[in-house]
Structures are given as structure tokens and as C-alpha cells.
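An instance follows:
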Amino acid sequence: MTLPPSPEGTPPDAAGPVAAEPVRLGSAPGRWVVLATVLASGMAMLDASAVNVALPSIGRDLGAGLAGLQWTLSGYTLALASLVLLGGALGDRYGRRRVFLVGVVWFAVASLGCGLAQTPAQLVGLRVLQGVGGALLTPGSLAIIQSAFAPADRPRAIGAWSAFGGIAGLAGPVLGGFLVDAVSWRWVFLINAPLAVVVVLVAVRHVPESRDPGRTGRFDALGAGWGALALAGVTYALIAAGDGPGHPQVWLAAAVGGLAGTAFVVRERRAPEPMLPTAVFASREFTGANLSTFAVYAALGGFSFFLVLQLQTVLGYSATAAGAAMIPSIVVLSLLSARAGALAQRTGARLPMTLGPLVAAAGVLWLSRVGPSSSYWSGVLPGSLVSGLGLALLVAPLTATVLGAAPDHLAGVASGVNNAVARAGQLLAVAALPVCVGLSGDDYADPAALSSGFSTAMAVCAGLMTIGAAVAWWSVRPDALRA
């Protein structure tokens, strides 16, 4: 069953120029569009990954326990996952560039607040606000690429976006570690302000406006509320279970999350203009690619959270060294990710979307052996290289398949769904894995306690990668994306 074709053209918009003529990747306008979207999404990815390496320093400085550190990550991811659909829908309706710019400014202001936080509660609250900004800018960056570029250039443009965004995500721990050791963890957040200024200047001048002319009715605020409450309830239950799963608040939060999730599904099926149009799931490829995304990004969330803690707490790495340990992945991703997008056009998307998670799983399994006596060269480096190769094979074809399975006029919704699924996977993994491996309280600072759960957590992450590969093989056509 296929989705209805998208309408041709876009009405004029007072906020800026309309993307009536598609831009080409090799042209000057195309390069400006890629620059603006890469800088913005890279800013969000860099910040999200840099915070991982700063967690031990944040815990010591603010007196936070393991639950506080989990919420430092999960508060941001919760807001992002809950509202990224809202961000995509707002962009489709009011202008993708306009909403994108609002998100960039919001993100920068919230980042400044995070850098000035004095207590764990303040930091978590400001991280939630930062996630709201991320929910506005992240789907907009990808939807702008999908709507601005000619169809023949989209896979390569998405490959470039994925490559540079992935590099920013992996460079985050390196930069974050350097800032933590050289200055303070606060600069992990404060550095976003100058980056945001550059994004705004480039986007205002060079990024064309686009929107979905069919989305003009009342906004589905109730659907957004139910979705946010569902994720918040489940996340709170998982993190609170670390202090004992029998506490009443754990089961109450889980019940609230489950009921809100049910209400969200019912609402989106019945709303006259839903935030999440169920028509996008008529495509087996769209549904399967998002299920694969959930499994793979859950693995990435858990893998990143545990590995950085293991390197610092058990192996005694500084924050800078822990971040630099993943540089080989950055190199592999930068060299191969854009090429993987072009490769998918020749081989079809199913092959790289299946092989990528399997290769990454092998790398994660290798890293699961990292312990107190491990050396970098035999313990960390091989796993880093292999996992980076797997991600390079996967990311661009996965993103292009999700967007290609939806009509152009729903580009913002498709991007929002995929981002929401990815962030929800990361959110639930960070919340659930410590509970599953028996960690709580100050265990993240105890080498013996942390190391005992690390191997199990990494094995679970490898299993999730394998599930993602199996789903991709089952759901994606062999010729998807093939030119």
C-alpha cells in the first residue's frame, strides 16, 4: 500500500522566499542550506553527546546521584522525544525555516541557563527547556533538506547531513572532555551561544522557506500533551525503579504512562487534523525503518552512557581522554557516511541497513570486554573502529528511507516521527539499563559496582542492534532508494 502523492508547489510565504525551484547539492545555494542545517543539528547532537562525558564532573560539583545524572540526560531527551513531532508539524504548518530559527534561538538561551545552574534540579529543569528548543530545530533541519533539494540530490544531501551531524555527535565527547578538564563542565553548554549566532545569520540569508499548504486547521495540542505524558510516566517509572521496583510511585507512574500512551493513539486516530497523521504508517518501509531506528538508537543511547562512565570510573581516564577514545569512530564516520548514501542508491537501502547494525553490534560486543586491565589499543580502539563502520553504513540510508517513504508535503512530520522514535529509544535505554543491570545511587562512582553491570549492559545494546538489522531486512524493499 502506497502513500498518496504530494501536491506540487508551495504557496508564497511572507516569512521568506519559497523553495519553488529545487536547489542542487553542488550549487552555492545548496551548500548554504547544508551548512545551516548541519550547524544547527550538529549543535544539538554535539551538546547531547558532550554531556555524557561531563556527567561525573557534574555529579561531583552539584552533588547528584545516579538518578540525578540519568535525569540530566533524560530531561533533555524526554522533552525532545515528546515534542519533536510538534516541531515537525509546526514547521509544516507555519514554515520550516521560521520554526527552525525559533528552535535555534530557544536552544541557545536554554543552554546559557544550563551553564549557570547551581543545583541538580535547576540543571534538569533547564535541560528540559533545552530539549524543547531541540524539538523545534531538529526536525526542521532535515525537513528543509528534503523540501529544498531536487529528488536526485536528496540521498547525497541527507548523507552529508548525516555525516557531519554524526561527526558532531561523536566529536562532542572530545570537545566536552577538553572543556571539562581545561575549564569547567559549564562550558559544555555555554559554547552553544556563538554557534547559534552563526546558524541564524546563515539561515536568515540563504535558507528558503517551505511549508505544507494542506495543514491549516486547529493544532492538535491534546495529542502533544498525551504523548509527552506517556513518555514522562514511563521514564520516571524506569528511573525510580532503581531505588526499588516495589515503590508505589513506580507503578503509579508506569500506569499513568501506559494510559496516556493509549489515549495518544486513540486521539491521533480520531483527531480531524492529528499531530501524527496515521497515513504515514501505511508504508511498510516507513513503519519498519522507524522500528529499526528505535532499536538501534536505544542501543546507541545505552552504549554511550555506559562506555563513558566505564572509561572514567573503572579505567581512570580523564574526561578529555574518555572523549578522545572515540576519535577513530569520528574518522570512519566522516569518511564513509556520505558514501553510504550514494552506495544505497546503487545497491538499494536494505543491504546497508541490515549490515550496518550487525557490524556495529560486533563493535559493541568487543567494547563489552573493556575492564580495569584493558589497554586502549587492544580493548577500546578495535571496538570503536568497528562500531563506527557500522554506523557509517547505516545512518544515511536509514534516514533517506524514512523520508523517501513519506510524501514531500509531510516531510516535517516524517522527520519528526523518526527523531521522536530515535530519542524515545535513547531515553528509555538510559532509564532502563541501569535498573536492568542492578545499578543505583552512587554506583556510577564505584568501579567494582559499575564494572559488574557494564558487560551485561553492552551485550543488551548489541542485541538491540541485531534486532534493528532483522527489522530492516524484513521491512525494507531491496530496491528502496536505488537510482
Remarks:
- Residues 6 and 254 are 39 Å apart (CA to CA).
- The radius of gyration is 21 Å.
